[in-house]
């Protein structure tokens, strides 16, 4: 039994490892597991936790700034390059790419669809490898392979070759967003994770800013080499430089993070476990957590929301074609218009991050707030007369980037609204499967040029109305669960027991047990 002093210590600091032996789990009512099933950082904590004092408010503020700047910036850079790679064909269309390789609108749509077939196929093996491999090393391998694929685009001069390359690019890129999501959850507190998501993903919405300026500069190059090849080589070279940075600096988890001191690593693990109620990392596949994730109705509500949101995602890659199709906008000018569109989305992301940082539990309602511009834009795209060129151009700029913000919030919220490492990674995979299915369908909606009424109507009904409505439904369900948990919660539920190979039992924070949110009644769902 734990003596009274030990029990007091446990209740006061349940997230720090306590070196007290437990002889009876039933008497204490603690959750109990073996060390194999515990958080992967447990061994590091056992070795160094007793040497590290409690963090002061001043130290925590400094640590928070340091971790946020490094992790969010690094993850955002990776995300930026991912979306620049995706946008290569869209911008290449401005450099006679279609004429050189024999593309038309139908073939272009098929290429985008095949990318997401590869993206969908890659979800199961990709998320499994995230679970089994060090995330930093896995990311390095992925970036290297996708760099090679990008360079090969320069020699793919036929439709069939482009199809193959886009399929494999989708396959390789499929684990990237889930992997980055895992990294953010490893280092950031629950509040930091929610607030940083729009800031982090602003790179994918604002990808048109750097890409647009690069494309604008390439248009002035005088060369015998096709400009679309020069553009592709520039983007691929940037991805190669990213691979070097990932190899030397991207962390696997807080316990091995080179940019943190030993004390800061312990403090980071403590504060993340304390605020999220979840394990940092677990490298064993737990079948029961996988099954639980698939049985959880919240998983499938998130899946449906992601599918609906991404029925509109081709709008982002279609916008350069829409600009020129509307008329009165040259290829040169369309790159600058896309920059302005991206700038608008980045400003929205910054505002959203500030709101989420200042106001708790705003994920669901932010979905509603930030879908409004796209909702209004879709109505105007359908209603405005074709001769109102300025109005139609403004509508595309307003609709194209901002809907991505609710989608981003949904990805982050879906990941943080469950516990158990295998369950979280599985939820990640299911969400990205919804992302993939939506994007498989999205390119095929763009028929009936130049008005594309089918695409705009489907986006209005499903992407900009039904999807945020599903998020509000999730909010009501999770809020009801939280009310019941808070009413029934006691201090023992915040504490767990881990049994090592020698049979010794150690009291720890329940978050270190890597339990699911269904098992861990101390887990409070973020809203």
UniProtKB/TrEMBL annotation:
Keyword Lipoprotein listed: no
Q: Which Gene3D superfamilies match?
A: MFS general substrate transporter like domains (1.20.1250.20)
| Location within or outside the cell | Membrane
* Annotated Gene Ontology cellular component terms: membrane
**Domain of life of the native organism:** Eukaryota
What GO molecular function annotation could you give as one example from this UniProt entry?
cysteine transmembrane transporter activity
Does rRNA-binding appear among the keywords? no
Specify where it is mainly localized.
membrane
Q: Where is this region: Disordered?
A: 1-23
The membrane-topology field of this record reads: Multi-pass membrane protein
Q: What is this protein called?
A: Membrane protein
Q: Which species is this UniProt entry from?
A: Wickerhamomyces ciferrii (strain ATCC 14091 / BCRC 22168 / CBS 111 / JCM 3599 / NBRC 0793 / NRRL Y-1031 F-60-10) (Yeast)
């Amino acid at each position: 039994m734990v003596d009274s002093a030990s029990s007091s210590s446990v209740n006061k600091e349940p997230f720090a490892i306590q070196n007290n032996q437990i002889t009876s789990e039933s008497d204490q009512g603690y959750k109990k597991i073996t060390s194999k099933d515990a958080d992967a950082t447990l061994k590091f904590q056992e070795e160094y936790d007793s040497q590290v004092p409690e963090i002061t408010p001043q130290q925590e503020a400094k640590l928070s700034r340091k971790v946020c700047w490094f992790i969010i910036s690094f993850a955002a850079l990776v995300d930026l390059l991912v979306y620049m790679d995706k946008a290569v064909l869209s911008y290449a269309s401005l450099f006679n790419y279609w004429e050189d390789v024999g593309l038309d609108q139908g073939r272009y749509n098929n290429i985008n669809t095949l990318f997401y077939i590869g993206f969908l196929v890659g979800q199961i093996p990709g998320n499994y490898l995230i679970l089994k491999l060090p995330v930093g090393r896995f990311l390095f391998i992925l970036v290297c392979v996708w760099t090679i694929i990008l360079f090969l685009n320069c020699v793919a001069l036929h439709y069939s070759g482009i199809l193959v390359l886009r399929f494999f690019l989708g396959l390789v890129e499929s684990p990237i967003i889930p992997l980055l999501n895992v990294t953010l959850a490893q280092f950031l507190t629950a509040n930091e994770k929610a607030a940083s998501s729009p800031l982090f993903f602003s790179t994918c919405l604002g990808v048109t800013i750097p890409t647009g300026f690069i494309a604008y500069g390439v248009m002035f190059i005088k060369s015998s080499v096709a400009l679309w090849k020069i553009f592709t080589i520039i983007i691929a070279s940037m991805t190669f430089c990213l691979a070097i940075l990932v190899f030397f600096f991207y962390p696997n988890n807080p316990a091995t993070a080179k940019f943190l001191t030993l004390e800061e690593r312990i403090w980071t693990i403590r504060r993340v476990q304390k605020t999220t109620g979840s394990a940092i990392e677990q490298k064993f596949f737990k079948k029961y957590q996988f099954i639980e994730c698939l049985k959880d109705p919240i998983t499938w509500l998130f899946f449906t929301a992601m599918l609906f949101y991404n029925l509109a995602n081709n709008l982002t890659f279609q916008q350069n074609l829409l600009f020129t199709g509307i008329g009165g906008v040259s290829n040169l000018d369309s790159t600058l218009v896309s920059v302005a569109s991206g700038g608008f989305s980045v400003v929205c992301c910054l505002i959203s991050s500030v709101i989420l940082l200042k106001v708790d539990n705003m994920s669901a309602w932010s979905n509603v707030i930030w879908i409004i511009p796209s909702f209004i834009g879709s109505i105007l795209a359908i209603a405005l007369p074709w001769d109102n060129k300025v109005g139609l151009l403004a509508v595309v700029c307003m609709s194209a980037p901002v809907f991505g913000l609710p989608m981003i919030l949904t990805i982050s919220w879906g990941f943080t609204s469950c516990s158990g490492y295998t369950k979280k990674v599985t939820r990640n995979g299911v969400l990205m499967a919804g992302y993939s299915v939506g994007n498989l369908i999205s390119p095929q909606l763009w028929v009936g040029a130049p008005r594309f009424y089918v695409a705009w109507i489907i986006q209005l009904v499903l992407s900009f109305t039904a999807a945020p409505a599903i998020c509000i439904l999730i909010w009501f369900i999770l809020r009801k669960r939280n009310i019941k948990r808070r009413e029934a919660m006691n201090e023992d539920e915040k504490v767990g027991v881990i049994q090592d190979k020698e049979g010794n039992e150690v009291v720890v924070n329940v978050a270190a047990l890597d339990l699911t949110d269904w098992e861990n009644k101390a887990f409070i769902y973020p809203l």
